[in-house]
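Query form — protein Membrane fusion protein, cobalt-zinc-cadmium efflux system

QUESTION: What is the three-dimensional structure of this chain?
INPUT:
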Amino acid sequence: MKLPINIKQGLSAILVLLIIGTMITACTNGKENQSENTAESHAEEEPAEGLELSNAQLQAVGIVIGKIEHKNLSAVVKASGTLEVPPQNEAQVNALSGGVIFRINVMEGQKVSKGQILAIIENQELLKIQQDYLSAKNGFTYVDAEYNRQKQLKEAGAGTGKSFQLSQANYNSELSRIKALERQLQQLGISPKQVATGNLTSRYPIISPIKGTIGTISAQTGSYAQPGTSLMDIVDNSKIHADLIVYEKDLSKIRVGQKVNFQLTNQNNQLIEGKIYGINKSFENDSKGVVVHAVINQPGGNLIPGMYVTGLINVGTELLTVVPVDAVVKAEGKEYIFVVEEGTEKKQHGSSEGDEEKEAAAAIHFKKVEVATGVSELGYIQITPLEKLTENAQIVTKGAFYLQSKSMGSAEEE
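ANSWER: The C-alpha cells for Membrane fusion protein, cobalt-zinc-cadmium efflux system are given below.
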C-alpha cells in the first residue's frame, strides 16, 4: 500500500523534529552534568582549609603570628610493653603431699604474709610417717647407749675395734634416718617435738611462701589436692616493673639509668615515672625488638601485672623544630598548624594614619597544614610538617583554636 506524497512529507518532518529534540536534550544534560562535575571538582580542589582575616580581626581575637623555632628539648624514644613482676615476687601454692582439703583460710584478693597458713590438708598416710619417726626415735636410745659403751671400751683398751665400728655405723645410720624423718615432718608443717610427745595428727598446713595478694583459688573444700597441682597463686606487686619493646633502630640510644615516663593506656593516660635497670641481649620472638626493663619509682595500688603501658624513654637533648603548644590544634584525630600564605604577612613596622587604616582592612590568608608532633617541654612541642614549608614561614603561635573553630564553621556552611 503506497502512502500519498503529502503524508510521507509530514512523517519525514516529524521524524526530523524528534531527532533535533533528542540532540538538544542530550546537549543540555551534558552541560548540566559537566557543570555539576565542575562544581564538585572545584569543591574538592578548594577544601575549607583556606581562611581569611583582617589585621583588625586578628587584634580583636588575640591572634599572634610568629615563626617556627629550633630549640634543644629532651629527646625521647617511644616504646610499648606490659607491666610484670619478677619471678621471686609471684608464687603458685602446691601441696607437698596429696590429700583432701579440710579447710581454706583465705579468699581471692586477700593480702597475706610469708608463713601464713592458707589451707589445711588431711591425709591419713601422715600417721605412718610419724609412727616411723617415733620408732626411730625410741630405737635410737639403745643404739646411742651401745655406741657410747663401745667408745668407752675402746678408749680404755678393753674392747675390740670391730665392735666399735659396728656400733658407730648403726649410730650414724639411725641418726641420719631420724634427721630425714624430722626434715620431712618440718616440710609438711608438723612439729617433730610434738610428735615425740605422742601428739600425732593426720592434717598438715599449706604455708604461704611469700607475702602478697591472693589471686585465683582453683581448689575447693573437700576436693583432693594432687602434688604438683596449683591450689592458688600469690602476687607481690611491690616490685612491679615494665618490660618495654625497643626496636633495633633505637637500641643504640638506650642506656641503663635513663628516666622513663609511663602512660597507662587504660588508666586515663595516668603518668608514672621510672628508670631503666636492665637491657636484654637478644631479640624477642624474631621481632627485631629487645626487651628493656624499667623499674617504677613509686608503684601504686592500681598497677597490675599484664597492664599495657607506653614508655617515653629520655635519651638526652636534641635540637628540634618546635612551636608553642598553643599553635597546634587537633581535629578528627589529626594535628594541624595555621601558616600565613606568602604575600599576606602581617606588617610589623609603623606607618601613617592612612596606611594604618589600609593595613587594618587588609586581608591575611591562612592555610591549615597537618603536622606530626613529638616531645613536649617548657611550653613548646616538636613538630614535623607533612608538607614542605618555606624557611621563613610564619605561623599562628597563639589563638589557633579560633581559626580552627572558624574553619569548622566554614566547612559546615559549605
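ADDITIONAL NOTE: Helices lie at 5-45, 55-61, 126-156, 161-187, 192-196, 353-361, 400-413.
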